[in-house]
Amino acid sequence: RKEVEQDPGPFNVPEGATVAFNCTYSNSASQSFFWYRQDCRKEPKLLMSVYSSGNEDGRFTAQLNRASQYISLLIRDSKLSDSATYLCVVSRGDLRNSGNTPLVFGKGTRLSVIA
Amino acid sequence: GAVVSQHPSWVICKSGTSVKIECRSLDFQATTMFWYRQFPKQSLMLMATSNEGSKATYEQGVEKDKFLINHASLTLSTLTVTSAHPEDSSFYICSARRSRVEKLFFGSGTQLSVL
User: Could you report the per-residue pLDDT of A22-61, keeping only the tens digit for each?
Assistant: First the structure.
């Protein structure tokens, strides 16, 4: 089983739509969770961290369910500029305990927002 | 903010040659750096964890004799693809984290094309 699995996509949505991305992870020792976005052949950029209590940043809302090892990202009122690949990212352990703990990336879900 | 510099951005080489990629942390000391590889339409795959002053930790399936990692200082890690072949053509990207800080900073990546 892969460490991080995401919706295969791609998602093609009109401007203004709400779109949800889902992600599951297999390592119960994982403690840190993130959503990154990646534009074609560019480095990934941190979109937001994900906390158990859920967190929101403008049009973006992230949720974490540790019991089911599930992470989600919701984008409301999608813009053309949201078109990118969204990567679910999970730490292998606890980042606070060891700087050697790597991040594992999901395959990503491609989003295309259409005018 | 912290910046990670990666060089070169593009490399085109003949089969059998070796290619060195540099990753530098510009305004912080990185005791640990991570090297990832990304094939087209695939996720970032962790290749190895590079630790300053010690041997790198390689992921299962990554040949350590082919992908030589050197982390001789707190600001520089290098990845050398030895005797490169066309199947090594990929997007290589490094990342680093300041100790005890969760955010991962990425280099801009190196697109390697082996002819």
Answer: 999 999 989 899 999 999 878 999 999 998 888 999 999 9
Q: Are A43 and B109 an interchain contact pair (Cβ–Cβ within 8 Å)? A: yes
Q: Is A44 on the interface with B (CB under 8 A)?
A: yes
Q: Which residues of A touch B42 (CB under 8 A)?
A: 107
Q: Cα-Cα-Cα-Cα dihedral of B68, B73, B77, B83, to 10°?
A: -30
Q: Do A42 and B100 touch (CB under 8 A)?
A: no
CB B40, CB B58: distance < 8 Å: no
Residues 6 or more apart in contact with residue B83 via CB below 8 angstroms: B16, B17, B18, B66
Structure-token pair, residue A23 = 């992600």
**Tens of pLDDT, residues B7-64:** 999 999 999 999 999 999 998 888 889 999 999 888 899 999 988 888 899 999 999 9
A108 touches chain B (CB under 8 A): yes
